[in-house]
DNA sequence: ATAAACGCCTGACGGC
DNA sequence: TGCCGTCAGGCGTTTA
């Protein structure tokens, strides 16, 4: 389901409802949704944790926690990765569990934080070592580190197809299938182009495109596709993604669908030459 | 180092 | 109606 803009939207929505709350109990309804630690340790360690902050890194949601129990130890972090079909929302404490609820955390004030995930690909981590979860990620697209020159230098450091490299979270954090297709179209670059053949001018265009497309996604509260609808509207503004056979908004040529790195890929054959 | 194939899961959709 | 293949916002492992 979610890429950077969708996760950012969820973080912004949950933040005011969660910060200041205390986690009372955990109801783990699908064991494999928990990446680490063991279910026993998780239930023991999560209990009584105060939520200090709600943030996002790449496609991970991060709840920064604190407890009075181990003031000398490192604070815990709860990470959630929604993968393809995960969602995270607040309910009332007495809400009946839904079919695909995988983890339910009861909070103070009769609230419940629910991790619902139809396809069971999503994962949750509770750890006092954040680097073990998010340590290998590339830069955030909106960070100062991510500059046109950085993108140019690092594209040329690899000999990869452009799209799979952009999807690689250790290269750049946060892009997924939708925003990669949209960014490449906006930059007029072909997804199969070799990363080390990209010129400086093209890297500059791609840098601008990535930021512009992600910013629009965030501004429209993300995209809601398939059966998952969370209120985002970016799906109504796709230029190429899921628009096979429809006209390119720039030149009216029919959008083509191809497969790149086992992912459905959408290009305008006229705007995006190899 | 790169890339393809496959696994993990459930559900929607189109064709017959 | 049902059955079947295909596809889906992700990513880790295995294999070439």
Task: Explain what this protein looks like in three dimensions.
Strand 3 (50-57) and strand 4 (60-66) form a beta hairpin. Helices cover 27% and strands 24% of the residues. By secondary structure, the protein is an alpha+beta fold. The chain folds into two domains: 4-134, N-terminal domain of MutM-like DNA repair proteins (Alpha-Beta Barrel); 148-267, Helicase, Ruva Protein, domain 3 (Orthogonal Bundle), CATH 1.10.8.50. A five-stranded mixed sheet has the order 2-9-5-4-3. It contains seven helices and eleven strands. The model has no long low-confidence stretch (mean pLDDT 96). The chain binds a DNA duplex (16 and 16 nucleotides) through residues 1-3, 6, 32, 59, 81-85, 100, 117-122, 158-161, 164, 167, 169, 176-179, 222-223, 225-228, 241, 261-264.
Q: Name the CATH superfamily assignment of the largest domain.
A: MutM-like, N-terminal
The CATH architecture term of the largest domain is Alpha-Beta Barrel
| Overall body shape | elongated
Number of helices: 7
> Could you tell me the strand content as a percent range?
15-25%
In angstroms, what separates the terminal alpha carbons? 29 Å
Order of helices and strands: HEEHEEEEEEEHHHHHEE
Classify the secondary structure makeup into a structural class.
alpha+beta
User: Quick one: how many beta strands?
Assistant: 11
Ranges where pLDDT stays below 50 over 5 or more residues in a row are none
As a whole number of angstroms, the C-alpha radius of gyration is 20 Å
Proportion of residues in helical segments = 25-40%
């Amino acid at each position: 389901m979610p890429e950077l803009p969708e996760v950012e939207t969820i973080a912004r929505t949950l933040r005011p409802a969660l910060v200041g709350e205390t986690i009372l109990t955990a109801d783990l309804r699908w064991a494999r949704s928990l990446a680490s630690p063991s279910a026993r340790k998780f239930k023991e360690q999560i209990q009584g944790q105060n939520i200090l902050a709600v943030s996002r890194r790449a496609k991970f949601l991060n709840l920064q926690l604190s407890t009075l129990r181990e003031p000398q130890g490192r604070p815990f972090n709860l990470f959630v990765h929604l993968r393809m079909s995960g969602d995270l929302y607040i309910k009332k404490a007495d809400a009946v569990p839904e079919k695909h609820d995988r983890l339910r955390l009861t909070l103070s004030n009769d609230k419940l934080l629910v991790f619902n995930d139809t396809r069971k690909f999503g994962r949750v981590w509770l750890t006092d070592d954040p680097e073990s979860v998010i340590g290998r990620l590339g830069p955030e697209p909106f960070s100062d580190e991510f500059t046109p020159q950085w993108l140019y230098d690092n594209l040329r450091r690899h000999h990869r197809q452009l799209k799979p490299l952009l999807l690689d979270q250790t290269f750049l954090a946060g892009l997924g299938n939708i925003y990669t297709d949209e960014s490449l179209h906006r930059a007029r670059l072909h997804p199969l182009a070799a990363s080390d053949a990209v010129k400086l001018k093209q890297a500059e265009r791609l840098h601008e495109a990535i930021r512009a497309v992600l910013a629009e996604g965030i501004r429209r509260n993300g995209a809601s596709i398939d059966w998952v609808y969370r209120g985002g509207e970016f799906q109504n503004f796709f230029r190429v993604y899921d628009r096979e056979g429809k006209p390119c908004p720039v030149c009216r040529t029919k959008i083509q669908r191809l497969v790149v790195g086992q992912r459905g890929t959408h290009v305008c054959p006229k705007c995006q030459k190899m």
